[in-house]
Specification:
It contains 15 helices and 26 strands. It has 554 residues and is of the alpha+beta class. It has 4 domains: 52 residues; 40 residues, no CATH class; 113 residues, Sandwich (Immunoglobulin-like); 249 residues, Spore Coat Polysaccharide Biosynthesis Protein SpsA, Chain A (Alpha-Beta Complex). The strands form 5 sheets. Strands 13, 14, 15, 16, 17, 18, 19, 22, 23, 24 and 25 form an 11-stranded mixed sheet that branches. A 6-stranded mixed sheet has the order 3-12-11-6-9-8, with helices on one face. A 4-stranded mixed sheet has the order 1-26-21-20. The longest helix is centred in the N-terminal third of the chain and has 48 residues. The relative contact order is 0.10.
Amino acid sequence: MTANLTAVEGSRNKRISFKETAEMRKTSKKCLGLIVVIFVGLLALFHIQCPSFSTEVDIRPRQEGTMKKIFEGKIRDIAGAYSDVPYHIKEEVASHLAQNTCVCVADKETFRLPFADLINPRIWAHNLDKAFLESHPDPKGVKRHRAEEYSSFQGRSFSPADVLIVADANSPLQYPTQGVEVRPLKTIIIPGLGLKEETGSNHTVSLTAKLGTFDVAATVDHVSVKGEGEKHIVLSSPLLSALNRQLQFVTYSNTIFHPKTADTVEFSTKSHQSFFTIKVGHGTIPTLYNSGNQREYNISALVTITTKTFLRYDKLKDLIDSIRQYYPTVTIMIADDNEHPQPVTGPNIEHYIMPFGKGWFAGRNLVVSQVTTKYVLWVDDDFIFTANTKLEKMVDILEKTTLDLVGGAVREVTGYTATYRHTISVEEGGEQGDCLHIRKGSYHVIEGFPNCVVADAVINFFMGRTEKVRHVGFNPRLARKGHLEFFIDALGSLHIGSCSDVIVSHASKIKLPWGQTEDQKAYKKFRYSSSTADSAVHNEVFYFKNRFKCMTSQ
């Protein structure tokens, strides 16, 4: 009897076991199917939102009238003749021409799967016209003032050397198209002048300037020269060889002082006319740093580490201790705008006290102004140096390339390492201002440095040439927030790179509310303030100072 019960029980257990196994298999198949569906969905989303991987071509008709009008406007001043010859616009090329009608358009709101922003971040747009002018008490007045300031800026920055001059083909006149320079109120021989016309009874050329006078450094027989020491000079001779020889001695003397401008010279015969420019200005004075003639990089002689602190002396102490572990003699400069500053002492430490709450960029300006080394390294006061924070690598790339500034990487406590690489472009937008476009990414890898790329903006851990960083400067109006603004001001001035193999650690920002100190609470209040006044300053900086009407970013 007992044996029978045992057999029945065993059979029942087997049936239950088979049933459970079947249920588990069924559940596993469902989970696997769900994973496959999600994966396929993400791939589809990635395919849709990344046109660079698409093989589809848009063949819908385009607005040819608008494109043709823009194209004709661009060639009108240089085309000259042949206006009666028809042409056909190659749209795939012409569409890349600047249209001077920029607009800021954000990505349309669509259904987005989880983590879609990690694959292809959405582009957002901010209308600075609206954000700044709507809250301003006199929008018309500030628009007029901005236009006047921009007009004045154009007047200061304009140079005749920027004007497009096209030399006619088959002209008998030979002249320099660029590369001629003269110091203010000095004299040079104009190189490359010549006349290549056929033999005739008499050969005559003339030169006319606005900012200087002409003369000849030597005379040649059978050549008549009229207008020595004047803005207009005429040279003539029955012998072409004699005239060309005389042209080799023509001088130009600048008579109107300007530290940087250009004179547009007219060079002509009776039937031909040409123009070329002579740059007028002082030469660039080099700034050289005597860091010692050593085979290996002496970081203490080459680099100064700078930071700014506010209500975070505990973080600052950890930063200094970590620096001293790897670079015991490098100079550390600290800008401090605490209300009740505490002493920060030690070998090769310079502590600068500022007015209370003076601000983030003001502190940067202060410490950078005091640097005497070739390079300056910027770090936040809550960074921590590790064995991977190799400043020698940053110095190496700055020494061996044309880069002016190179960023590193910041490793968070979670293990994630950020490089914050962005490209920046400005699109012309007409009278209302231009458009600022910021995109994640870089331009290309730097040859010889496989872990480094060229970009326009990098993370808040960078080393730069001291003089170049000073030249751009930091806007002291940005008190508690600001980073990208520096790189916008540096656009066109600094050659910037980013290297992922120089890494600094970031101290943890995670603090439970009941575990925060009074200083930490005060810091959070100052640092993450979202006041209307702060927003207004940033909008004004972009709208008025930089003359943007809108911006887009990822």
